[in-house]
Task: structure prediction
Amino acid sequence: MNNSKFSKSVAWYGFGNLFIRSLSFILLPLYSNLISTKEFGDFALLMSVYAIGVVLYQFGMQGALNKFFIEEESEEKKKLIFSSIFNSIILIGIIFTAIFWFTAPQISLTIFDNTKYSYLLILIIITILVETLTFFILFLLKTKELARKAVTYSIIGSVINLLLNIFLVYYYRLGVPGIILSQFIASTILLFLLINVIRDDYIPKIDGAIFRVIFRFSFPLLLANLLTAGVNVADRFILNHLMGREEVGIYSFSYRIAIVMNVFVASFSTAWNPHSLNLFYSNDYKQAFGKTLTKLVALSCVLLLVVSLFARHLFELNINNISIFNPAYKAGVVIIPLVLIGYIFNGISSFYSVYPAISNKTYHFLFADLIAFGSNIILNFVLIPKIGILGAAFATAVGFLFGATYLFFISRDEIKIKYQTRDLSIIIIAALLFLLIGLNLKNLYVDIILVLAYFLTLHYVAKIKIDQIFRFSQN
Result:
């Protein structure tokens, strides 16, 4: 993938993820005004189970598909690689679905102290199975660098989900069950639309030799991804244990606002994984890697400022005396900057994922995520009793920081990067300075001035043209 194509891929994935997240963002006012903080806490815990389930069903094999499919030159062998992975995922999914189906009452009892959510947990695991199949079909398109096609299908699924939410949650007032049912129906429709995509790439076969190689490569990724999911959702379970479901709901609502950063990070990571491998094997990567990191940090800091400074103003907006966001959730706005910073570190982890991938030492991902998960759990238990939801957000940020730091240190002698140290320093220091000023003054007009001032700092002091930040090209 050349730099131009990489830039277009980031742009397409960025647009797609932003559009999809925008649709999810549209649903937040709906949820906040129709669902109580306690019910949203229940929903957040159900989605935490969902997040862990997704990792189990994918089994870390998306990394194997990305690596082995790209490295293989034979088209027939590529088909065999994809088919072996896809068919393995089907079998793994059936096994996990059977296990979760019978253990759903116990899971519900453990989390909610009752079994009333057993049926929703069963619906969630079926949804995960369907979504996993759609995920690997879409991932095949991404691996083949068909960004536009992958994004188009993703958008179709999200639009269907939005319409179903409006119909089931708003019109029929089904609440949390309506949200999950909408996701299931939308995922099923999308799977039927995607089946035709793999017509020329699918073989009803699992090659034993390929499976063994893929399993050895994927299993450490599975464990690492489970730990990453743990970093993302452990705070909900600990908050529920220490403070109750209402606090979980307030925390999770603002966390969803901050996930806008993860939209960008996911877009970058999706395009960076294949691009970085191709660039590294070309032996002409040092300067390009350095420029990419600078632009990654610059755009991340722009999002940090914009979302952190303007999010609280959304709770003050109302139309015809109806609040856009229910003020009952406003207490959670304090966590947004810390969650955003955590996702910035997660993006940096993606940047430094090249060495473990090219060396087949995927256990480094496991070590990085083990460090992140361990520190996150400890800090959650230490800080939540002292500073509540702010402690949970701080634990998330520090966990991702430690994971990124580990990947940096194991990569620095293997992947030689020409860093733009001066520009990076200006980008980071200016962003933190303007952020602190804005958070303390809490004035809309000041926030607008600070964001504009940051753009001017990037342009005139760091010498970074704004359009280049979004293009991620080498030049």
